[in-house]
DNA sequence: GCCGTTTTCGGCCCGACTGTTTTCAGTCG
């Protein structure tokens, strides 16, 4: 059992306790512990072996015992008993918008509803509205919530949500009376996927109604979910939920910080404010104990921008991408925030396909696009011969491509194509090209494209064997395509990172919107082990090259600094690096 | 269930909106 599985069980225990009506703080303790465990960088097995679990903040005696039991026996009696005491369908019911643990508990206690299907039937028969605390409107919302759940279960990819948000932002910005206007929420934090879009506006009071109307009557609105004085919520035809919040301009920086989140980051910021004797909310700082609410808040500190808020708390400015309560507040206090990568820092990239294998554009077109982006180099990495499904090159075609690249390079001035390959790691860990061909290439990306159903131990062994090959430069998409599931595979990333450190290999962080291989914890671990990451688009066309930027958000979450990323090196350094590799 | 320069008990982040009530509970972010 790994820490991720432990974290999932702890989270579920927290939710199950909520459904049983347990002390909310006890429930929260489990949720907090789950998050802490899942983001742990130390080896949990080692911590248990050394009896050091309780050194972790939020893990006390009870949780330490439970985690130890889970790790040592693979089971937890407390969890099994808890699960037996409630029907499994209750957890799924919590996904219905507007239903929380209290309402689900009532539905179960009074009507014996155990599944979403039973809930839908009961609501259709108007049995739900008859319950105490429920009504016709709640019943209607439950039915709509179930429909919506079926229709919009998925989250939205960053680039799609960003395009949508920009269109709405453009409309809001041009409204009369608007002072400041920004995207907030997970979109501002550049999460890989977005739940809903949050837009924040500051405006003159007289303009609020007019702005809200402009928002709710936007041409792409499918349905207006809520419309109030400060907040409106719409569902777009593209099935993206979008919230607009209006505040006055004095409140704006506080609201921007608040609605940018994350929730966990905000909780920590409030705790910190409390230590200074202030209460922090979306409208300002106020003195603890004062009864003032919105409208007559006596601001203890005036803040015109978000920067001022951080400064008031003696923190350096925390970029939105880092606001996940993953240690950024401590780092901001001690001046140790990472130096984040910007799009402008990217000086080239590897792992790009052409129409020689399964790409769409020609090598010429890809090279031109890279130069337009201002890059110094572009790596060509078409598939190898075993990747028949992807039109993998045969020996002769690869040799021809190497020659073609040499020829092209003689025509460039401040740009260079690098000849590479995305070589298949075969099921036994050997490579699809022999060493004679591999040594002729500038770089070699090794990746798995077959036999995804191997066990974690088997696929880890397979990858590590490939990493050991002296011609391999980097490991491509190390866990497959997680968002597509169908070709993701289990792998022990800690072992893989250790091997990459031992053999001096690069690990690729694919930034194609459908592929997010490494999460921030592994990036952080890779950094500790001094393993270089490369942000690669796995671009199959010109447009794909622009997606490198989408990966930058991920890299930021990984606390990867410019110096830790291959793509920020100049061509000269890249060539030196490749020679060494 | 966790935590403590207010440490073994009492507090744990905070406000808007909705729908249900007639002053508030539940949900959400």
What's the structural blueprint in terms of helices and strands?
Elements: H1 3-19, H2 24-38, H3 44-49, H4 61-73, H5 77-84, H6 89-93, H7 101-111, H8 116-124, H9 136-151, E1 156-157, H10 158-173, E2 178-184, H11 185-188, E3 193-194, E4 196-203, H12 208-216, E5 221-227, E6 231-236, E7 241-247, H13 252-260, H14 263-275, E8 278-281, E9 284-287, H15 306-312, H16 328-334, E10 348-352, H17 363-372, E11 377-383, H18 395-409, E12 416-424, H19 435-438, E13 443-447, H20 456-468, E14 474-475, H21 493-503, E15 506-510, H22 520-528, E16 533-536, H23 542-546, H24 548-557, H25 571-580
Parallel strand pairs: 4-7, 10-11, 11-12, 12-13, 13-14, 14-15, 15-16
Antiparallel strand pairs: 1-3, 2-4, 5-6, 6-7, 8-9
Helix pairs in contact: 1-2, 8-9, 13-15, 20-21
The structure holds one DNA strand of 29 nucleotides.
Question: Explain this structure to me?
Answer:
This protein is α/β, with parallel strands linked by helices and about 575 residues long. It folds into 5 domains: about 5-85, DNA polymerase beta, N-terminal domain-like (DNA polymerase, domain 1, Orthogonal Bundle); about 90-150, Orthogonal Bundle (DNA polymerase, domain 1); about 155-245, 2-Layer Sandwich (Beta Polymerase, domain 2); about 250-335, 2-Layer Sandwich (Beta Polymerase, domain 3); about 345-580, Metal-dependent hydrolases (TIM Barrel, Alpha-Beta Barrel). It contains 25 helices and 16 strands. The strands form 4 sheets. Strands 10-11-12-13-14-15-16 form a 7-stranded parallel beta sheet. Strand 13, helix 20 and strand 14 (about 475) form a beta-alpha-beta unit. The structure holds one DNA strand of 29 nucleotides.
